[in-house]
């Protein structure tokens, strides 16, 4: 038996040894069968073939020679001098806008003064009906006659006014919901503000680059110039606009910065319905705040609670993120216990006092907003302790409902603390009446009658772009608004301080960028502007959240708030212990601090740049030059790439000295210019009209005289530039002198009606001093580039061999289009294959007209410093399934740098688009054959070898499986991709997108219930009951009513319930409590133990898994996204100057213990690598994804990153006007609900109640 066992054991051992020997031999054969030398030869031949073909077909050498045959220069740029030059241009541009607004303010105050003081003495020169109601402009009946009450206005379409039909002589009136144009105050303001039309028109004549000008009256209407109908054509909005008085440009101009504490009663004495109305009131207050303001909201019942945990014992910037967080959190509050007003007031006073004493917050206005349904006292003791006698904190009280006893108490609280009392009975009043607080805070500024602070709003998405580009009609433009308040300068019999309104004008960002020419910054250079809070006015990577057409439909702006540290993404390096080194991040923060101060300076650090919808990433070292834009809250920065941005290529053709007509170089339709660049332009429509009249051209009356395309405009000026007597006009007009008030004292002088407009007719400092502007350097560079690139479609090679080479190349790679794009914005192309007429794909020129902004241009410029003699290749992402139809095109681009006196600069980029299948066939032909003399065992045609061509971002250019084309290789074989990262062939880079867009579908705040939408019938009934109660109370003795009726200004608005849609909601989670260190300083300020310090933790977010889809704009929210992208490290494949293959091997990837070798070879003259993988070992393959995912953990305003932003430096506005010693003399400090204009049913019920009361009293 033992011998049997022994023999079995020996047999097993021998079997294992034999198996291992076979496996070892198999591995050895497998390793030897990877033809590394062949891989190198394949890559070399493939790369050289592509390079030689592309070099000849694009005629890059000929273009370079043509440039050198002319006078050229490579000049060094001085970044600081360039910065100062551009900052002066931007200042000049902004001065025009500011001065236009100040002229409007001055004339508005004078018009109101003369009109209101002379009322009844003379008939208005404007006749009976003084205004054009935008709702009734050009409204005709079916029979073609003007409808009753409508007015005719001559209008014509104008590009610069959002492509709307307008009248350049008249303004129109836009009306929010609830504003009655027949009210006396409204009618009076309509009458005197009509005098602004001549000044609107004169402003536009002096500065034809002006956009919409407007006067927003405190009475509720908006006068907008030029006049146009509302709603605009194509809009789905109603005839009523959103109430502009709650918008940033109005509120922030009307009041100085402020610290606001909102106290919301959350006791069980508040009914659910009234609490929802109180919430709506609080939310409307929050919506009026801006980034110079500080805010917090607390709820109080028996204890005080801070709904947002990380805001406890703090006041935070009123940024959109923080406002959104507060709104979401408040909706989770549950009503309970009784109301402890003392605790709430003490907490609010203590926190405001702390911020006032410590130098934090706005250091200007401070206010408490108390929102409640009832209170049994006026809380004089606690108010006296904290706020008297100097009253540093204003108190505004909002009574929800009509509790008679509470009305008196809340009115007394507001009136004795320089505040205002408001009664809120429905959602419409919650929206309209919150603006009262801003009008009260404006009183000191109005009483001094001196300063008119100029306010610049955050940027927002407005209407259609005014550009000439073929796609401009489908683009919306970014806009900021400059505004200033208008004061009532009349003498009144009682002490008042009335804000008549706010005047402003929109400033399109596309107009600002025109004065910072891209050609001066060069390829991959850019500029940006930040405000006093570090928020970006514009930046090439700024992507504002969509507004779901709310501006187009309601004229309601959705303001963007993106910090510069969220757009410039510094590269993070890692030390030996894999610890992050934040040198670049620290330099970015230092630069931000300097720009906030503001301070001129320069710095240099490395940032990450992402392309193609954040699917590619590269790193680039930038030089930053920054400095203030004088007399504005803004700072300008220009950014130049460190490797090539310090030099510019200069080559111009003097047009007037040219022997030929320069338009000869622009024949045909195969060229475009950059549609956003200013080559030449007329300063006004009238200047263009005069020019066309002199040329005998005709323009339709209902259409703006304009050019059909940027190319037509360029040709127009080129044809005139060669004429005798041509003047360049290359200096933009200078802005007028700063505005000075023309008033003396508070009364001022009351000039006659001739004052309006006549005092502003002077053309001194006007932009219309010259009829046009031309950028001489840019236009002459364009002509030189056109000369150099002209005729490239004609054969310029005399030898027959040249023709044969090109023909062979064309047959080898089927070229669809060849192109050249130059530093002057010129794009010229040649179509080599006739496009099918029914193809849905846009032509190359349609997608690439902004050539310098495209990915292929930017990447080609960067590639030059990696490998000068090379092309950058790319295919459309995920295009593999279109291969069979030959629709997929490979784009190849190469940067032309011209050298002069030892320095090089970019002159342009040449390129090709050719059919992918022809490239794949050529690759297969090369890699299916052995190149050596000894032969090879396996090629890419073998079953057990997979061959791929990958680009420098890890995307598949060529694969044996056609559907792989355009896919990220990590999705095909993540195991190999991981190995390429470990071998440092690719570098994995984590990219954060702080402007991500997520759907509310995966929003962790959506589990809690939102605000109740009032039932229509129930709302009607509730509304009428309130009105009846108010009517009944009006019959009571004055002692019971307890507040002076004459101090109220009653509205004449109909009471209408409006459904408020609040989509953001809040849910408390139980995971990972958020621990916020409590400020120890606060303890000494609190005098009550009723403050609850334990608050629920914020919701922890679990990121969405799977592909992300762009959410519907109505349900979109901002979120932080994170993704891993990949960058090729070509130096790893070029050790010692030798392009040798790098041999790799996957081990321990299968239970059998087999291994999987692979070979990687750089393809010369390209951004590509050749990857050959052995497939014998069935290794499991994981998948890597580059799809952005939302950051896990605490999200929103309580995230670590957002909390860090709260500590970043800001610069307060220069002016704070929050006190006037005589303000306490003003008696007007509250208003209740409307009783004068009730619906018929209420009036009938009111009469019935009067009758019943009379009968009962006399029974």
Automatic annotation (TrEMBL):
Hey, what's the signal peptide range on this chain? Answer: 1-28
Q: Where is the composition biased (Basic and acidic residues)?
A: 691-704
Name the predominant localization: membrane
Taxonomy, superkingdom: Eukaryota
Keyword set, alphabetical order: Calcium, Calcium channel, Calcium transport, Disulfide bond, Glycoprotein, Ion channel, Ion transport, Membrane, Metal-binding, Signal, Transmembrane, Transmembrane helix, Transport, Voltage-gated channel
Q: Where in the cell is it found?
A: Membrane
According to the record, the residues making up region (Disordered) are 691-710, 728-769, 1095-1115
Which residues lie in Low complexity bias regions? Answer: 752-766
Q: Which Gene Ontology molecular-function terms are recorded?
A: metal ion binding; voltage-gated calcium channel activity
Pfam families in the record, alphabetically?
VGCC_alpha2, VWA, VWA_N
Q: Identify the residues that the record assigns to the VWFA domain, covering every copy.
A: 259-438
Q: Which SUPFAM superfamilies match?
A: vWA-like
Record field: transmembrane: 1235-1257
Q: Which GO terms describe its cellular component?
A: voltage-gated calcium channel complex
Q: Note the topology in the membrane.
A: Single-pass type I membrane protein
Q: What's the protein called, per UniProt?
A: Voltage-dependent calcium channel subunit alpha-2/delta-3
State the organism of origin: Drosophila mauritiana
Q: Which gene encodes it?
A: LOC117145774
